Amino acid sequence: MPRVTHRDGPVAVTGASGYIGTHVVVALMKRGYDVRACLTDLGNPEKTDHLSALNGSYEGSVSLHQANLLDDGSYDAPFAECCAVLHVGTAMGYGGANNPRQVYDGAVNGTDNVLRSVKKAGSVKRFIYTSSFAAISHPAKSGYRFTEADWASDGRQENDPSWNLDNIDEGGEMGYAMAKVETERHAHRFAAEDGGFEAISVNPVVVLGPLLSAVHELVGSWQWFLGRTLTGKPNQRGWQHLWNIVDVRDVGEAQALMIESDVCQNGDRYQLSATDESGEIDVVQIQAHLEKMFPDYDIGGAPDGYAAVIEKHGAVFQAPIAHCDKARVDLGLETHPVTDKLRETAQTMIDLGLVTPKQKD
Ligand SMILES: NC(=O)c1ccc[n+]([C@@H]2O[C@H](COP(=O)([O-])OP(=O)(O)OC[C@H]3O[C@@H](n4cnc5c(N)ncnc54)[C@H](OP(=O)(O)O)[C@@H]3O)[C@@H](O)[C@H]2O)c1
Fold first, then answer.
1. Ligand 1, CB cutoff 6 Å, lining residues
2. Per-residue pLDDT tens for 208-260?
3. Domains of the chain: total
4. Quick check: helix, strand or coil at residue 34?
5. Which of 85, 90, 112, 222 has most ligand 1 atoms within 8 Å of CB, for mutation?
6. For labelling, which of 48, 94, 163, 172 has a CA lying 20 to 30 Å from the CA of 81?
7. CATH number for the domain including 161?
8. Which residue range forms the structural domain that includes residue 199?
9. pLDDT tens-digit profile of 95-143?
10. Per the domain annotation, does 353 fall within a domain?
């Protein structure tokens, strides 16, 4: 079994300065690893300072390395002698930063670039790929329970004209889902052919929890929409269905557990989602939780349109339903309660000065 420990050499993280990437770095440092944090711009203190500040707080250490997914061979140097690579980075569409074609091409070409550097290193035993629940979720009836056996491409390749690379520019988030399916499959195939390492995926749903830098606000992200409710504005994202919430600390911890696990094998996927129904809630339930935690603030709730949905259907669309049972059983992952995720997201956004809460009259 090619499991590793901190005695087998350094580990590298791509996208290390990002919201999830930083928590992956923390989880690895807690376990004593020397972490090579790969980021695109060593000259931007908003992306480097929170990482450098981690040194001295944990058993392991972190060093910073410049690399870009779009530059061939960029990861050859940081991956040399590494026993594991955790590939978190990708070109995201947040706030229109990249169009759907750039998101797709960036993910597919960037992951291939990273895999080629893994092969060149020759020392890597485990490759953990941060995919997404977007690679699992497909159209299904209200209440359908997703597992790792589901693929976003199920039934779509034949029946859904929008699942088509030619239409990707009009497809919006479809390009992201197609990219995550393609890159997961590519990583698993690549590792199987190489034989020297195993590629395992994580598929997070709605990630919330402490922000460790102001750059983790990410305009258009789940945390950004939650932050707006603290200023009294209605929650405009995903209000027609459930928010299936996983803690960003659990996403980091699961990945650290995966490089050390005897159970994981090439091709495995782990959906990182709510532990149970308590983490599958709609925007009005999120508002109720936040009102209890922050009684002095005027918290925003459902937007116009919500009441009509409830009147017609009795509840929002019951999706996505997905529990992280496999990660808990295989990896022994212990998850944070949903109240903790909501409180920490809100409190760190306030502490970082990203939002000014609306006080009650
Ligand atoms: N947040 C969620 O709810 C969620 C849910 C499911 C899956 N995911 C996945 O989780 C991963 C991390 O997302 P996040 O939410 O943490 O967003 P994020 O903070 O924006 O992280 C994305 C990272 O990708 C890096 N990146 C972008 N373009 C790059 C390039 N050309 N070369 C190298 N690195 C590049 C960025 O690094 P620099 O800062 O160095 O440019 C950034 O740190 C992504 O793969 C995403 O698909 C996120």
1. 14-15, 17-21, 39-41, 47, 68-70, 88-92, 130, 132, 204, 206-207, 216, 218, 221-222
2. 999 999 999 999 999 999 999 999 999 999 999 999 999 999 999 999 999 99
3. 1
4. strand
5. 90
6. 48
7. 3.40.50.720
8. 7-209+246-274+322-335
9. 778 888 889 999 999 999 999 999 999 999 999 999 999 999 999 999 9
10. no
